[in-house]
Amino acid sequence: MNKLLQYTAGALAGIAFTASAEVVFQCGFRNPEDLKSFSAWQVEPEIRQDGVVLTLPQRVTTAGLTKKLNPADIAGRRLNFSVEARGTGIAPAREPWNGGKFQFTIEAPGHQSWPSAKIKLGNFDWETLAFSTDVPADVTNAQLMLGFQDSYGKLEFRNLKIETAAALLDLRRTANMGFADPVAGDGKGGWSDQGPDNDAHNFKWRSPATFANVPFAVIDPAKNNGRSVLTMRATNFPARLEEAEIPAPAGTVGNHLYLLHTLCYNVPGTVGSVEVTGNSGKRQTFEVQSGRDIGDWWNPKPLANAFPGAVWANNSGGRAGLYVSHFELDPELEGIKELRFRSAKRSAIWIIAAATVSEHRYAPPSAERVVTRADGRWQELARPARPGIVPGSALDRSFLSQENAPQDRIIVNADGLFARESAPKTPVRFLTAAEGYSTIFNECTTPEKTREYVRQLKINGYNMTRLHYFDDMLMRDAKEPLQFNAEVLDRFDYYVHCLKQEGIYLNMDVMSSSIGYTPGDAWGSDPQGRSYKFDIYFDEEVRRNWAEGAKKLFTHVNPYTGKSLVDDPVLAVLTCYNEQEFAFFRNHRNWPKMAPAWQEFLQKKYGTVEQLRASWGEKLPAGVTGWDQVPLFKAEEIRDSGNRGIDIARFLTSLEQNLYRWYAAELKKIGYSGILANYDMGQEQRYHLVRQEMPAVFMHSYHAHPSAFISEGSTMPQTSSIANAGGVIRGLNSMRQYRKPLLITEHGHVFWNNYRYEQAFVTGAYAAFQNVSGLTCHAKPVSVIPAKLYQIRPFSLMFDPVIGASEFLTAFLLRRGDVRPADGRVRITLDPEELYRARTFNDGMNSAHSRLTLLTGVATEVLKPGAQPLPPETDEVVLKTSGGTAVVNNLAGFSQVVDQPGNPFDLNTFVAELKKQKLLPENNRSNPNDEVFESSTGELLMDCRRNYMSVDTPRLQGICAEAGSKAQLSDLGVDELTTRGNLAVVSVDGDRPLRQAKRLVAVYATNALNSGMEFDEKERVTLRKIGQGPTLVETGRFRLRLRHDRADRFKCFALGIDGTRRAELPVTAKDGELMLDIDTARLPGGPALYFELAEK
Questions:
Q1: Which domains does the chain possess?
Q2: 3-class DSSP state for residue 957?
Q3: Coil, strand or helix: which one is 878?
Q4: pTM over 0.85
Q5: What number is the average pLDDT over the span 961-983?
Q6: Which residue positions does the secretion signal occupy (predicted)?
Q7: d(Cα 19, Cα 524) in Å, to the nearest integer?
Q8: What is the pLDDT at residue 847?
Q9: pLDDT in tens, 618-639
Q10: Cystine design at 989: which of 53, 87, 686, 999 (Cβ 3.0–4.6 Å)?
């Protein structure tokens, strides 16, 4: 967060004066005439050649020169003051704010301020003093003072200048919202009514404020009844301003209008307008266009007419901000009388924080353009000649797999967990390797390569693979639909055979491609306008393609195994259609196909158009008399929370439920009896209803998703997942259904986020704590093919050593079960009808409820109509759904919840109740007010405000922490950490605990980047070039202590990323502790992330 605030401060820098500022007053103080407009008090000013001299031999309360300014000349303007001063014997005052004075006093109704420049004590030579201030529009008195207050000595002044640079429009009387929103979804706000974890209370500004080099008057909410911005009306927030009239200060002239503003729930097109009325009576109107003049407040980036002026980290972990936009004013306006802001009344919420009129065209700040290069802190990572982990090395996790081949089908047991059919009481967890095109087209081109590759999957600790977009691979070079590529199918068959040999299960999508099992480019612009994720709802030919493709693929007999996939236990789970939620994310060519179904749904519900109009009101256009005239909703209107929005949600839910039933029936026809799910990314609560009939829940979500992959200008939030209380795992677990497995089929802390090292603890440890059935970090974690560039990319894990270290630790945290599952559970009951009554169907789980994920087990029981919740079990508390949390869906392929707590449920009170009920021990350190959460087991501790998390289990202990952190866990002590990262020690000696293990691995994962990456700022938010190898690792020093029964019998080796021992390092022992002191910048052969501790 600090770095983001530095970015904002950068936008504030260099603001003292502007080239075209209007001079209000200036005085050289070189002749007596210069003093005529001043009044002297308790001092005799003396004009000399160098300037005016004020000599005060002894301390007085106040003495000096004062000058009044006409309020009408300066009202509503930014004033810049400067003077040259020299001092002799300036005595200190009794209060630090007194002494020598260059100060301006402003008086207005209910307000008084004293902006000033600090004058040094003692003796000093001529220097320029300067300050700026904003004068309120209702100023009644203004006076400048040069002299002394509670001080004495000799002060000399010369070259006084007062300038005004811009007219700052006064929004105070019209402002209707504050930066902070204490209660979400109550219709009162502030900000966008999304609650304290997704508002602007972290926006740090100072008065006078300058953003992107433009002066603005930002309202202090503490001085304006909590109101600081104009929040305009939107379909999601109708009780706001439809329009706002803002008078300009008298005498306002200028050719340039600047706005400081932003959007929530961004949509393309016009989001509002600004009408400018001139003194001539002429009007000029500007349409404010999303994508040109303004953008979404999350991940702001430069646009054609908008520049990020202020950026901050909100509590949900996002990078949020305000834009500065410029509009050219017509000279025929002859000065500005007023501005009128009008909402376009769409789903986007337009928020205006300030407006300025100036004669000056301010240039936006230039980019810093930071390039990553090797230096003392960032050093090249040595890579082996051939990728992969050396068998038998300390990084080999194959010992986690005990079975030779998956002979048993995976089932859902009575506890709602995955298990093998032959051992239903023993849960099975999956660490899944996400596979894609390179698996089939690069890694598995020959049987020998395939065997080596699959062997490496096992060595890396994976016991499942998820093959993604295989439908598109099968259609390589096809001329007709369903014309499978024989070579691709054969490679796949042998790959499956090898998976069985290594005891690895298979997870597949029946369909992933947007064009299904048909020829064409699944990733390009389709000339036929095919969008099968949407089309399959309404087009029988598309359904036929899905069903026949599934039949052809899954009933095909593999010549290497002798079985079809429907008969082979190796196929553990199927997703019907990857991320099908995208079907309704945007308007497209085929959108009108939905109209007949929509109209039929409404007719069935309402019976008559009159009844529909009684429900919808003005949302039904005048003149509609028949059902075929009822217009189809647009994608951006899906989040409407009114009666029409309820109908949209019910309609879409019914479509999705019915399509899943069709999928399940078609797969049953071909003999598939395994686990099936669909809709794997939506975190809106209505998706609980969609998934109610599914045997398991599959989910996708990411922390820190790039805005445009690796394209120039793509932005990455440089925020911590700990800072937002593990939002990524809370969002995923919020979709957990009672007595159903949760399989996370895509997740990741994405490159180039600085906090990727948190992934193993935030996602891996808490997934284990919640007894999640599997994790899939997306994508491609393993390769055995030497690369030329070793370029790290988002969603391509094989060359990212930080994510490699995270997956290493996750294998133990989750698969081996080093983190114990929660001792109890909170069951949250969800009544489908209550979702619609409360209008929270498009919200995620209430954020206070989701924070329970960090304390105890959490699952949602979806009630059937009229049903009562099941009775509470032992160590279980049952709660009703309360409130909601906004969901951000990203077209790049994930969704995440955005916190908005604020509801009758009080987490602090509930923590106390959990202690009374013995679901939390009395000594549990959780303090939700301070954002500190300790698990019921005592093994996990998250301190959000420190970006700190610890894992303390018998077999694995460590911390994620900022530089300078220290810790003492059960066995592990951290005495020094000079670079933020994940520092952990894990036993790799079977199931032996740390104190008894003969072989351990210490992991120090910090950050890694490509060489030659280019960014617009030092925080590495905005990407210009992705760079290439060699990989640069951020180095650091750590000192740790580890209790061990045989502490004096260990050697330490720095390991390569393949597990080879590179260099022996010193180990000391004292009082039953072994100690390491390692500086990764000073290691032979370059930095290391792994350190093997082996008993001699």
A1: 12-165 (2.60.120.260), 169-358 (2.60.120), 371-396+954-1096 (no CATH), 426-584+656-821 (3.20.20.80)
A2: strand
A3: strand
A4: yes
A5: 99
A6: 1-21
A7: 49
A8: 87
A9: 999 999 999 999 999 999 899 8
A10: 999
